[in-house]
Amino acid sequence: MFTGTADELRAREAQARELAEQAAALLDQIDALGLGAAGGQLHTPGGIIRNQPGRGWTVTDR
């Protein structure tokens, strides 16, 4: 459980969002290999990483 300040929490949430966006970019690169598209979604502290048809992997808020 996080026990820091509200400012520390916001900073960590922003960092988690950045990491989730990096993960989405990696998933796009994996799909680009043409070995078969992955499906579904991943739930992370930085948001939900979803595979959206025609848009690739994106990060959305919960």
Descriptors for this entry?
62 residues; three-stranded antiparallel beta sheet; elongated; 3 strands; 1 helix; alpha+beta
Provide a compact summary of the structure.
By secondary structure, this protein is of the alpha+beta class. The chain has one helix and three strands; from the N terminus they run H-E-E-E.
Please explain how this structure is put together.
- The chain has 62 residues and is α+β, with helices and mostly antiparallel strands.
- 44% of the residues lie in helices and 24% in strands.
- The protein contains one helix and three strands.
- The chain has one helix at 6-32; strands at residues 41-44, 47-52, 56-60.
- Strands 1-2-3 form a three-stranded antiparallel β-sheet, covered by helices on one side.
- The model has no long low-confidence stretch (mean pLDDT 90).
